[in-house]
Amino acid sequence: MWLQKSLQSKLLLGMIVCAIIPLTISIIISYRTTSNSVQSQIVDINQQAMDSSTYYVKRYLDNLDQITLSFYFDPVLMGYLRSPSSADYAERMYISNQVYSISKERPEFRAVRFASSQTGEVYSDSAFLRLGEGDPPGSISTPEDDQAGWGETYGYEVVTMNGERLLAFHKPIIDYPRTHLLGILTIYIGPDELGQLVRPGEVSTTEGEQVFLLIRRDHELLYASQEGQESLLGLEMDPAPWNGDKGYVQGKWAGQEGVLVYVTDDYKGMPLTLVKYIPSAVMHEAANEALRKSLAIPLMMTLLVLLCSSLLSYMFMTPIKRLVRSIAQVQAGNFDMQPIPARQDELGVLEHRFQSMVRGLDDLMNREYRHRLELTTAHLKMLQAQINPHFLYNSLQSIGTLALRQGAPEVNEKIAELGYILRYSMDLKTESVPLHKEIEHIENYMSLQLGRFRDRLSYELSCPPEALSILVPKMILQPLVENSIVHGMEKGTGRGAIHMVMELKAEALIISVMDNGKGIEASVLEGLQREYGGRQPTSGKESGIGLINVLERLRLRYGSQFTWEIRSIPYEETIIQLHIPLEERKDMQPAASAQEVHSV
Where in the numbering of this chain does the HAMP domain appear (predicted)? Predict the structure, then answer.
């Protein structure tokens, strides 16, 4: 359900699937490739080591052959061996000593035996044999004459003595330069040195690996890396393929799957075969280790892809979510759009177009509002026009003249001020006036109010001369002053002071109206701000235009550049402050009645 409602989840899931599937396929292919490659490397490494082992075995066999040549360098011994008669005790002791000396040449020699072809006597020195106790396994009987084919008996074979597998090396002693055979020297060699020579072929000491050294064409087992392996019965394979130089085949040892690596060679016509069994578990472990090392970079790439996918989904979905919130905001009636980051892609264009559309709708609504306000103003003007302004002004002037004739100059003055107020208020053709006109109007208005309240009301007005020519909307000061009198004084203590200050800044004209009357409650201020924000014009109860209408007129005239502020402390200070942006100044001289500072 969450997947159906979230486009970001769908996008993120799709990116993850697109990253995981190729990675999985890559891992499978990499594992198979790595496994084959590792197997080939293991086979190559083992074959190289086995080649070296085979080479050292051949050198060892050469060394054995060199040891047997010591008979030829002893003339006395050769003389005894050539004698066709049986040897006396001294001769037998001499021959036995020579056999004994050969048995001590190397520690792995288990026994040395010499069979004379001249006398048929056998000489031996061994911990296993004594003269006259019989022939050991692998012994070659002496023939009666030279026609028995002694040359065919020369070679190597595997024999077992006292439970130990030995190499029997048969060396014919020839009476050079003749071809007469004097006898056969046989050396029985233990597996100690052969094991040292073959073990480098093991390469590793991993449990389960086996090494076998085979000789002769019938593959006699000469050496096995573990004791107790008397034959190749545990190998489930046909040894026929070992006739090649080197290679490997699949097979089993003791029921376990593995690879049999072999290297074949020959020594003076005798086949040598070195075989190594490597369990499949070793192959797989090596492949897995190589795979683990090779997977580090793909896994890092996958994490990077996931991170980039999350970042991209966030970058794509953030403007969409912001656009959805903006639509909900517009539906709620709030057309104030928050600034958005500058983007050049399609989503950025969509957001900018939407905000442009909202601003267009806002402008249309403002124009509609202004249209309604103009209709209201026109209706007011129609009511005002029902009375001829000239008639009223002329009538007041006549009354003033009559009062002057009757000796009442003060009455004449007040009537004149009222006439100026009516003429200014009912001038429907003028919408903007210089500031000094507004000041003249407010002075006439305050003069009438001072005549009404006498010493209960005082006011002060200050304005810099350079601000008098600034054009401002007509009738913006009287509602502010009237608000202070009606709501501050009349509803308060009945006494008060009003201070009007005009300040000219670099970019705005600041008009402040201050009084010490009753003040404005916080709830009234909040209602005023809501009414202003709601853009619903109302008419004042006393002034005929009202404070809120003054604020709305200034907002429509100057837009968002116009600001206002109200601060109130009851019976101490209430300030209404207008910040009117500067537009243009009218190059004209202010009236003589406009003063920089006027106090009453």
Answer: 314-366
Decide: 517 and 574 in contact? Cβ < 8 Å.
yes
pLDDT of residue 451: 82
Task: For residue 514, tell me if it sits in a domain.
Answer: yes
| Distance separating alpha carbons of residues 512 and 544, to the nearest angstrom | 21
The first and second tokens of residue 372, run together, are: 């309604």
Tens digits of residue pLDDT in 384-415: 554 455 555 665 666 767 676 667 777 777 77
Tokens matching residue 350: 């969509």
| Claim to verify: residue 471 and residue 594 sit in the same structural domain | yes
pLDDT, one tens digit per residue, over 479-494 is 899 888 888 888 878 8
Same domain membership, residue 546 and residue 463:
yes
277 backbone dihedrals φ, ψ, rounded to 5°: -100, 125
Q: How many domains does the chain have?
A: 3
Per-residue model confidence as pLDDT tens digits over 323-333: 888 888 888 77
Rounded (to 5) percent helix, strand, coil in the chain = 50, 20, 25
365 three-state secondary structure: helix
The pair of structure tokens assigned to 446 is 């305050």
The answer to the question of residue 497 being in a domain is: yes
pTM for the whole structure: 0.46
CATH number of the domain within which 540 lies: 3.30.565.10
The answer to whether 491 and 518 are in contact (CB under 8 A) is yes
292 vs 131: which has the higher pLDDT: 292
Give per-residue burial for 228-263: e unless 16+ CB within 10 Å, then b: ebeebeebebebeebeeebebeebbbeeeebbbbbb
Asked whether residue 158 is domain-assigned, the answer is no
Does residue 510 form part of some domain? yes
User: Residue 352 is part of which domain span?
Assistant: 315-380
